[in-house]
Here is the input.
Amino acid sequence: MRGSASMVSYWRGASPSLRLILITVGTTLALWFIKVVLNLVGLPTSWLDVNLALPGSLYSLGLRPWTLFTYMWSHNALGHLVINMLLLYTFGRMFLAYFTKQQFYALYILGGMVGGLFYPLFFSALDAMGQFYIHLPLYGSSAAILSLVVAVGFYRPFDRVRLVWVGRVPYYVIALLFVFCSLLLNLHSNIGGSVAHLGGGFLGLLFARLLHHRVDMTVPVLHVYRSVRALFCPSSWVKRPKRTPPPSETREKQEPIPSDDVEIDEILAKVKRSGYSALTEEERARLFRR
Here is the structure.
């Protein structure tokens, strides 16, 4: 019980970046473990990639639309996982210096999904032009992370960050550098992945530009999240009690004025009209017992 309580406490105190890292690393390790077990017992593992990874055609995506969300939570290589998690931790902290936690989660998911959508769109366009390439299932959160990088880089482009051996560098330079590197490193080996990265970066740029015009594109995502939570969270089914006024307000509204106070007011009014001598002995006694 203590172990579970400490884990819950650690999760509640974790930053949004660390939470996403824990989810992604845990999902990736679990997927790798399942594949190892299936290989050991001689069972196929391809059905995991079919149902979790992002396909490279719009037709397959239409058959498995959930893969547009599931693909970003696991990786197929250790180096890919480590680099992405380091970038998520670093740029997640930079993002949260300017934006809210809700915007962080919403843009991360939106960036991953929009970037992922660019992947089958690109290959479908090539197929339509007669250029056929092998498009393997796609894993990874690079598009989602790049959306955060570009959002910070173009929302506060001239803010600077100190880099070792380089000095203070503007955010927009860092954003452009990461976009260039993501294209350069994957252009020949994984051109579809580079297109997905561009999609995530495009969404980060759109997010930053719209915010400059006081439009937050993450608001619809947050509305959907609250609606789903209200639908499935049992606490939302409990009818909230009506507000009860504070005790002092209740007494003022509901309790009648005590009769003793009414009598005292009448005696004082009589004194004002006719003087103290006009009071009877009973009225005088009542006044002094007040």
